[in-house]
Amino acid sequence: MNIAQWWRGLTGRSSLNSPKNLPRLPEDIDDNFYLASASRAGEIDRLSGAYDEFLFSEDGLDKMPFESSVDHHLALAEIRLKDRGRRSYLSRQDDLFRLKGKVATAKYQEQQIEERIQEQESKLAMQAEVLSGEKTGRAGLFWAGNIPESPSIFSAALHVILPVVTFVIVALVDIRIIVISFTTVMKESEAWWFALPAVGVQLVFPHLIGDRFNLLVHGYKKKIAAILTIIFLAGVWLSFVYVLTDVRIMKIKTDMEDSGSVDLGHLTLLFIGNFIMLLGLGTWLLAMAAKSNHHQHEYLRVDLSIKWLKKKLENTKRKTVSLETKVPALAESLEVINQSYTDAVSTSRNELAEAAKSVYRRSLINQFGSVEFTSSFLGAEGSATPERIEKKRKMESRVSKSTIRPAEHSKEVNRESLDVEI
User: Fold this and answer.
1) Does 315 have pLDDT greater than 90?
2) Which residue of 85, 106, 188, 189 could cross-link 341, Cys pair, CB 3.0 to 4.6 Å?
3) Does residue 257 share a domain with residue 151?
4) Does 162 share its domain with 278?
5) Domain co-membership, 152 together with 288
6) What pLDDT, on a 0 to 100 scale, did the predictor assign at position 396?
7) Residue/partner pairs of 307-316 with CB below 8 Å, 24 or more apart
């Protein structure tokens, strides 16, 4: 059993996708085996001694019992073939309906994608109007700027993801610095738990400060609120940077005292270096937020979405075309199945029946080996010859005499009658 057969057995579908809940039919007729059986039937009928050369002339027998059984059996086979044809046609029709359903689904997906593209294109046009200075955008301000160009999906995705990558890199560096600093006063496992919320201050506060600067540059009306927010956030952030740096330097100073060599100038330089490093990471995020144009990033994001949708639409249309090209062939196969089973029914009822009878007749004729039987069986002249009539009369006369003779002569009579038959 190969993989395909195993899968069909597992899913309950045969090679013809037979419908379920139907009784199984017997296997198809093997023509060679059927004809061989007909030949064997001729041999058995001759050996049975139940037939002689006079059955088809004087006795008026139309055909042998085996020939009648062939007609009845192949009539039954015809019914089974018709049923098999209906099942195969139904199964293939089910495949056709499934295929048409897939085509309809693919076309519906095309329609949905096209609608989403139109929606995204409307958003893109709105962002383009904001960037061109025709209308206000975020916070009711004008965000005029260059419309970003992204000729490919890769370039558009790169521009969209670059700010996120930068943010993640800064976050990883900050987390490592904060954990190292906290391990001077607590266990490393505890330092990680404190580092996670602390890194939010190092990342989020500089970003918010830069964002407020950006709003002020573009003419934000609530200037006082924005300035106060900047002062508060900057105070908290700088205090955090100072404390974090001081904790780190205290640890270094303690290590120096234990070794008996404390260099204040060296400690001062370390303090300034750590402070500037933490300050620089936050300032990087602050500068990015201060100069960024939200609508440029949104334009890139929407443009990337449109490119992905168009690519998906192209693939869906290709799939639809591929499915539609299969529909005519599958529909035509229904006609082929119908005609094939019609021909199979006709062949089994006519050609196979005649072939089986011909093989049987040839076998029976060869077994008898008598010209008279051949002529009578095949109806060469349509009536008995005078010689055959006389031969039959003598045989009947001897058979009748054998019934009244004494028992002691029965063996001789039987021997004579046997000689007559041979």
Assistant:
1) yes
2) 85
3) yes
4) yes
5) yes
6) 57
7) 307/150, 307/152, 307/153, 307/156, 308/153, 309/113, 309/116, 309/117, 309/120, 310/117, 311/153, 312/113, 313/110, 313/113, 313/114, 313/117, 316/106, 316/109, 316/110, 316/113
Q: State residue 402's pLDDT score.
A: 52
Please indicate, yes or no, if residue 311 is contained in any of the structural domains: no
Q: How far apart are CA 201 and CA 208, in angstroms?
A: 10
61-70, 89-98, 227-236, 255-264: range with highest mean pLDDT: 227-236
Residues 204/209/215/216 CA torsion (nearest 10 deg):
180
Token pair of 175 as six digits: 């987390």
DSSP-derived letter for residue 347 is: I
- Put simply, whether the predicted model's pTM sits higher than 0.85 gets the answer no
* Calpha distance 116→110 (Å, rounded): 10
Picking from 348, 334, 339, 333, the residue whose alpha carbon sits closest to that of residue 81 is 348
Q: Is 239 exposed, middle or buried (0-12, 13-18, 19+ CB in 10 A)?
A: exposed
Q: Is residue 210 within 8 Å of residue 285, measured between CB atoms?
A: yes
266: its two tokens: 């060296």
- Asked whether residue 161 falls in the same domain as residue 262, the answer is yes
Last residue of a domain, one of 292, 324, 356: 292
Tell me whether residue 287 is in a domain.
Answer: yes
Regarding whether 390 and 274 lie in a shared domain, the answer is no
* Mean pLDDT computed over every residue of the chain: 76
Structure tokens at 354: 């005649």
For residues 403 and 270, state if they share a domain. Answer: no
Q: Domain range holding 411?
A: 385-422
CA dihedral 304, 310, 316, 320 (to 10 degrees): 180
* Structural domains of the chain, count: 2
Cα end-to-end span (Å), the chain? 57
Task: Measure the CA–CA gap between 121 and 129, rounded to whole angstroms.
Answer: 12
Show which of 268, 292, 316 is a domain's final residue: 292
Quick one: pLDDT band at residue 416, thresholds 50, 70, 90?
very low
DSSP 131-197: HTTSS--GGG-----PPP---SHHHHHHHHHHHHHHHHHHHHHHHHHHHHHHTTTS-HHHHHHHHHH
Picking from 40, 18, 26, 147, the residue whose alpha carbon sits closest to that of residue 87 is: 18
Q: What is the pLDDT of residues 122-156, one digit of tens each?
A: 999 999 999 988 888 888 888 888 888 877 778 77
Residue 10: which pLDDT band, with cuts at 50, 70 and 90? very low
Whether 391 is covered by a domain: the verdict is: yes
Residue 282 belongs to a domain: yes
